[in-house]
Amino acid sequence: MYELTAENVKQAFGASMFQEQDPRMEELRRIQAADAPLPDYVVLAAGVITNVGFCREQLETQRQNVRDMLSQLPEQFHQGTGDGWSFLQACLRRDGYHWGEHRHIEQLLLLGIALGYCRFLLPRDMWKVMPGGMPYFGIALDGFPAPKPMTDNQIGERLQRAAR
Asked: pTM of the prediction?
């Protein structure tokens, strides 16, 4: 199992990015300058502060490592046992070890979002009502089903559960 450490998250994050020597970099610069749609080999992920575009092939090489690291976060994050917890709680592993800081948590979260293992529980404009104004996110190591729109009642219930 790939251990959840700040160094391992940084390694997986860097390995999932486009490398400067990638021949597609020039094409990506032209696409970005023209504000054109991105090709399929780019996987976008929007985080708390950072938005990134991963190289799909490189990202896939890190799939098992990311899954292993996410599995070490507390059960409160995981679908079926807690269904999600505050971003602020993700600095600790299940064993209580303080593995990283906010920038490392965001890198792991971005990898998890890009691979379909993580998602935010509420839309960005609702984060301000959460403790510390920080988002809650959930982890599904088998992937999340396609999202369904939430009713106002469901949102209210989720907010009440999260406040406990």
From this structure: 0.86
